[in-house]
Amino acid sequence: MIYLTRKAEFSASHYYHNPEFSPEDNQRIFGKCNNPNGHGHNYTLEVTVKGDVNPKSGFVVDLKQLKDVMSREVLDAFDHRFLNKEVPEFSTKIPTTENIAIAIWERLTPKLKQAQLHRVRVYETPDLFVDFYGEDVYGEA
Amino acid sequence: MKVHLSRRYMFSASHRLHSDEMSVEENREIYGKCNNPYGHGHNYTIEVTVSGAVDQQTGMVCNLVDLDAFVRNHIVERYDHQNLNLLPDFAKLVPTTENLCIAIYDIVNRGFHQAHLEKIRIEETMMNSFEYAGEESR
Lengths: 141, 138
Fold this sequence. Notes:
- The structure holds 2 protein chains of 2 kinds.
- Chain A is built from 4 helices and 5 strands.
- By secondary structure, chain A is α+β, with helices and mostly antiparallel strands.
- Helices cover 28% and strands 33% of the residues of chain B.
- The relative contact order of chain B is 0.20.
């Protein structure tokens, strides 16, 4: 088993708001992230896949294919977008970094053929990142 | 859905690696320039990783404001601009970054309950880092 990680970057805006909360609760819980006009980040995405090295190609995954899947499924949808308004997952879920990592996992995992998705890591800033391993909270994936 | 969230914090501190249980020569032999009696300093980066279910209402594992406040009050204020050797934590322990990792893990694990602590990772310099994830690795 070997692990391979590919990085990509995208820039997007978002804000945190739950319509079920009162305006005061939204402000208290989400603070300045609650500004409805949104604010932006340069996100760094790290996608780690795992698998066996193909004895003929020496690859765990076709890098070109992985790059294409990441571009098509994630970057084309997220880059230079207002996540709350332009990405369907976030019409019902708050685009926190946690939910962004889960959404990216769910977009990528059915599209990867050779290698298995191991981890999605999303950096919101260099000092804050989220890892999702596809785990249900009650057990392993 | 279980998600891991990591946040980095920084503080600067000095230390000297020296054990009273060893001779002067042994200390010098084992710790090298880190045994310099005047101590030396580092800019430490602490990476705190917590995990848990994503709260359906907030979309969060835990509120970063709470994590930031805890780490600021209990870790950064405790260690920033201090000589680690003079702190009670290291009265009987050599303040290696291994031991600092364990000390910080224990403080966060005891006091922060809004999410499960997965691990503490400390970068002492750009070239070396240490991780502690609790009992099993002890």
